[in-house]
């Protein structure tokens, strides 16, 4: 079994780099409701932010920002179902500047309004 993944003829991601990438993923999960520092994430993965974003996109099939947005919106569903949170509170906890921006993003991803998930508006 090979212990690396080819990105292109000039770059190889070894198993150690994949381990570091997993640590960076843990950082994302721990900070979904807070500030995510892309430089810190790249530092955890032992590479520059530019290379971290490239590796992430290659391995996940989507840009880093899109992954974080999807994870936040998935977490929003859990928060709206399991807690007695208002939509505005969830939106602010996840870093959205307004409930309207949150509602629009939520509807695009889930196909329903957050008010249809939440028992509170």
The amount of beta strand, in percent, is 5-15%
Q: How many structural domains? A: 2
**Helical coverage, percent range:** 55-70%
What's the average pLDDT? 86
Low-confidence stretches: 1-11
Form type: elongated
C-alpha termini separation? 52 Å
Radius of gyration: 17 Å
Compute the number of helices: 6
SS-based class = mainly alpha
- Could you give a short account of the major beta sheet? 2 strands, antiparallel
- Major beta sheet, strand line-up: 1-2
Give a verbal description of the structure:
The protein has 121 residues and is mainly alpha-helical. The chain has 2 domains: 4-61; 67-116, Homeodomain-like (Arc Repressor Mutant, subunit A). The chain is 60% helix and 7% strand. The protein contains 6 helices and 2 strands, in the order ββαααααα. It has helices spanning 15-30, 38-44, 49-60, 64-82, 87-93, 99-110; strands at 4-8, 11-14. A two-stranded antiparallel sheet has the order 1-2. It is elongated and about 45 Å long.
């Amino acid at each position: 079994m090979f212990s690396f993944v080819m990105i292109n003829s000039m770059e190889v991601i070894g198993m150690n780099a994949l381990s570091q990438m997993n640590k960076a993923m843990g950082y994302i999960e721990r900070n979904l409701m807070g500030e995510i520092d892309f430089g810190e994430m790249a530092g955890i993965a032992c590479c520059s932010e530019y290379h971290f974003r490239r590796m992430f996109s290659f391995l996940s099939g989507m840009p880093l920002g899109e992954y974080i947005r999807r994870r936040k919106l998935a977490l929003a569903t859990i928060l709206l179902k399991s807690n007695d949170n208002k939509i505005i509170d969830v939106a602010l906890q996840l870093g959205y500047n307004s409930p309207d921006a949150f509602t629009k993003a939520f509807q695009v991803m889930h196909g329903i309004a957050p008010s249809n998930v939440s028992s509170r508006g």
